[in-house]
Write a structure and sequence with these properties.
- The structure is a single chain.
- The protein has helices at about 15-25, 40-50, 55-65, 105-115, 135-145, 155-160, 160-170, 180-185, 290-295, and strands at about 5, 30, 55, 85-90, 95-100, 125, 150, 175-180, 195-200, 215-220, 230-235, 250, 255-260, 275-280, 285, 295-300, 305-315, 325-330, 335, 340.
- By secondary structure, the chain is an alpha/beta fold.
- It has a 5-stranded mixed beta sheet with strand order 8-9-10-11-12.
- Helix 1 (about 15-25) links the parallel strand 1 and strand 2.
């Protein structure tokens, strides 16, 4: 249970089968983009200390001997506190760091999003994010756990915005989740079937709201990988017509958000401070980096026996209880949702 297994496959039904297979056998999947530089791939495989890499060669061996495998259901061997996945993000040392997310954290988040979005078996969800990026877990498991249909697109389809728009229309996609950069470039017909659009990973421009029809609900989300995909969400239907910015919303279920000054004290409404996150979504820490984990995941002074994560992000409480994201306190930037130190 919780043993890391690297998955290094292109986006396909076999990638999904590999993820489900690792989880069902009790392991924690470690997604690696096959297009990563060789040095990064080698580092992640070594750092995760995985014994198995599910790549094209391993998949070919499996297919060749598929008749030899038993078809009976596996007995559960993992528990809620075991790891679900380890996703590597950028690091200040130049080497990526593995964020360890436990199963209960992922399930809590998925249930919260299911209820927020109103996902049903009639939904058609687009799997758009690179699976080495944690937004992919939201897209995959929202579908798998709720009886919805999951549509996968190739790497080339993602960057072909005209073709992607036609794909969304042709397959009657109802649920679209991606970064604002892509949403801005996306070409959609006026008669598409979208019910909801979710924006995350970058600053949300007000101009983007005018792109979608009245029947589409648009959400803006915020959250670091260290707090399980997203920590706050905002339904833009609640926007005041005079608003100059789109908030990132309120904490998702069982999540605690604090905005602190440099001395660790709570900031009043309207005053910018560092966003710190506690609650059910908190990662176990960074794999093989106890010092960094201790620096970023600190004791929560406002909840005895709990931890909080210092995001390094800046924000402030708005009078209506929503959070406005205002930037970073360091030199980290995001490009298409990916963190670059």
């Amino acid at each position: 249970a919780g043993e890391p297994i690297v998955i290094m496959l292109e986006r396909s039904e076999w990638m999904i089968a590999a993820i489900l297979g690792v989880l069902k056998s009790g392991g924690a999947y470690v997604p690696v983009d096959p297009d990563y530089p060789e040095e990064r791939i080698t580092y992640i495989i070594a750092d995760s200390q995985c014994r198995v890499v599910l790549d094209d060669a391993e998949l070919a061996r499996f297919k060749a001997g598929i008749a030899d495998y038993e078809k009976e259901n596996l007995l559960p061997v993992s528990q809620a506190i075991d790891l679900a996945y380890i996703i590597y993000t950028s690091g200040t040392s130049g080497q990526p760091k593995g964020v360890m997310i436990e199963q209960h954290s992922l399930v809590n988040y998925l249930f919260a999003m299911r209820d927020t979005y109103g996902i049903t078996g009639t939904d058609r969800i687009l799997q758009l994010s690179n699976f080495a990026f944690d937004a992919s877990a939201e897209q995959i498991f929202l579908s798998v756990l709720n009886g919805a249909t999951l549509y996968l697109v190739s790497r080339m389809q993602v960057i072909d915005t005209a073709g992607l728009g036609m794909f969304i229309t042709a397959h009657e996609i109802t649920h679209l989740h991606t970064v604002p950069t892509l949403l801005t470039q996306l070409e959609l017909s006026g008669n598409n079937s979208l019910r909801r659009v979710i924006s995350a990973g970058e600053y949300f421009p007000l101009s983007l709201l005018h792109k979608f029809q009245d029947h589409v609900t648009v959400y803006n989300k915020y959250g670091p990988t260290e707090a399980t995909i997203s920590s706050a969400i905002f339904n833009t239907a609640a926007l005041n017509g005079l608003s100059a910015v789109v908030p990132v919303g309120r904490p998702v279920a069982n999540t605690k958000t604090y905005i602190l000054n440099g001395e660790g004290h709570l900031q009043p409404v309207g005053i910018i401070g560092e966003l710190c996150i506690g609650g059910a979504g908190l990662a176990r820490g960074y794999l093989n980096k106890p010092a960094l984990s201790a620096e970023k995941f600190i004791a929560n002074p406002y909840a005895n026996g709990e931890r909080m994560y210092r995001t390094g992000d800046l924000g402030r409480w708005l009078p209506d209880g929503n959070i406005e994201f205002t930037g970073r306190k360091d030199d980290q930037v995001k490009i298409r949702g990916y963190r670059i130190e």
